[in-house]
Amino acid sequence: MMNSQIGNPQIGDRPVVSTLQIGDCLPVSAIETVQFSTSPDGGNRLAVPNLPERPQSSRTRRLSSASQSRRTRQRGSAVVEMSLMMPWIAFLFVGILDFGFYAYAAIATQTAARTAAMQSAIANDVSQACTAALNELKGLPNVGSIVSCGALPVIVTATVLNAGTTPPCADCSLNATATSAQVTVTYQSIPMIPIPGVLTARLTLSRIAEVRMVP
User: Fold this and answer.
1) Type and span of the H or E element at 19
2) Short-list 171, 175, 180, CA closest to 212
3) 61 Cβ contact list (under 8 Å, min separation 6)
4) Alpha carbon separation from 205 to 13, 49, 103, 171, 199 (Å, rounded)
5) How far is CA 89 from each of CA 70, 92, 186, 197, rounded to the nearest angstrom?
6) Half-sphere exposure of 140 (CA within 13 A, CB side)
7) C-beta separation of 102 from 119 below 8 A
8) Short-list 121, 102, 101, CA closest to 209
9) How would you classify residue 126: left for phi > 0, otherwise alpha for psi between -120 and 50, otherwise beta?
């Protein structure tokens, strides 16, 4: 199909389009304003005004309405899916929070027992076991202001074991004169969100460590 190039001149105050394809239909009001102009290279250019927009057909309107309805249904489906998933997401978040705190508290309690037993064995004195244990547990939220170890949330018990105690020290079967420091640290956690059948609202952890004393 042949194309006629359209120049830049204007018809009155109205701008002209850049290209008109031969065979296109023009409205009657625009036919009278179609003009040919001579281009600098000697060719003819067809100048026409901007044509009015063609109104949407019924099929276009139906497609637009169907697309809008589809988007509305998709938004409704997303809301229903989020409502169904939200309890499981909340349960997962609570579980991660509780297990994370439980793991940290268990590690801190075990470390406190080992440190207290080691310092007691090196110093040949179990009286400083409470201070050593509290220094390791100070990162827990309910231990920062505690200065004694006689009641929960922190209880520290330090004992000197030898061949004549019950139980005897771990090395007493090899050396009857051996002695060791045994430290038991019991920690009670802050109230947490309970998970039925998995975690209670408050946990009590107890760890024991024994270190042979230096002769």
Assistant:
1) strand 19-21
2) 180
3) none
4) 89, 87, 11, 26, 13
5) 28, 5, 33, 18
6) 28
7) no
8) 121
9) alpha
| DSSP secondary structure code for residue 50 in this structure | P
pTM of the shown model: 0.62
| String of DSSP letters for 64-113 | HHHHHHHHHHHHHHHHHHHHHHHHHHHHHHHHHHHHHHHHHHHHHHHHHH
| Alpha carbon of residue 85 to chain centroid | 16
Q: Alpha-carbon torsion 42, 43, 44, 45, what sign?
A: negative
Residue 178, φ and ψ in degrees, nearest 5: -75, 150
Tens digits of residue pLDDT in 61-94: 666 666 766 676 677 778 888 889 998 898 889 8
Residues 44, 9: Cα–Cα separation, whole Å:
12
How many whole angstroms separate alpha carbon 95 and alpha carbon 196? 11
Cis preceding-peptide flag for 49 (omega within 30 of 0): no
Question: Tens digits of per-residue pLDDT, 25-69?
Answer: 555 444 444 444 555 555 555 555 555 555 656 666 666 666 766
Beta-carbon neighbour count of residue 190 at 10 Å?
14
